[in-house]
Design brief:
OB fold (Dihydrolipoamide Acetyltransferase, E2P), 2 domains, elongated, alpha+beta
Length: about 220
């Protein structure tokens, strides 16, 4: 049986919130459980839904319909009507793309080799996965990945994947201290990659200079 209620504490940036049910219960709701509509959900929207349980066993809403909302009409799009505007890529995606471009230029100029690309690729996947796992844990209210671990993965060549994950999952994009820390990590990689791309720095030369230090250790 479908229940009625109102959307409350909706966090549009993170894509989840709660429903104050007419039965007096409070239900967790994720954006994926809401039927596709032409607009975004908002606090105070009247809804109908099916009651269920989340992965943590707490009340969760399923098959949520927002009363009075315009459905996402695929037929209208097929006939050529103007589609709903999609959000443009944020600065994180743009910066990630620039970092990848600088890395490609460095390889082309011979100041960086493919092993460095491989490190960035592997660590980018690791960082992306860490952010995705932390977002899922936050939504399920499970044990979280520490911010220090996320930033460390970004610093150790995972920055491209980390920035893309922040953009894709809309995760860690509102906390000022984390944004500031991300900017510092990004600045370090920007200086390093610009140096490689312009020929001011050579990854091979830096590695050869570091070898005696590691050998001495």
């Amino acid at each position: 049986m479908r229940l009625s209620g109102k959307l409350s504490q909706w966090n549009d940036a993170r894509g989840f919130g709660f429903i104050a049910g007419a039965d007096g219960e409070r239900y967790f709701v994720h954006i994926s459980a809401i039927d596709r509509i032409a607009t975004r959900p908002r606090d105070g929207d009247a809804v109908t839904f099916l009651a269920g349980r989340g992965s943590d066993g707490r009340p969760a809403a399923k098959s949520v319909k927002i009363d009075g909302a315009n459905p996402f009409d695929r037929e209208v799009l097929r006939r050529g009507a103007p589609p709903v505007a999609r959000p443009r890529p944020g600065w994180r995606a743009v910066v990630a793309g620039l970092f990848a471009l600088l890395l490609a230029v460095a390889v082309f100029r011979g100041t960086a080799s493919l092993w460095l690309v491989g490190i960035y690729a592997v660590m980018g996947v690791v960082s992306f996965a860490l952010y995705g796992s932390d977002k899922a844990a936050a939504e399920a209210r499970r044990w979280r990945t520490s911010e220090a671990r996320l930033l460390a993965a970004d610093l150790f060549c995972g920055v491209i994947g980390g920035l893309l994950a922040q953009e894709v999952f809309r995760h860690k994009t509102r906390k000022p201290t984390f944004i500031f820390a991300t900017a510092i990590v990004g600045s370090v990689h920007a200086l390093w990659l610009v140096g490689l791309a312009t020929g001011l720095i050579s990854a091979e030369e830096m590695l050869s200079l570091a070898r005696p230090l590691f050998g001495a250790a």
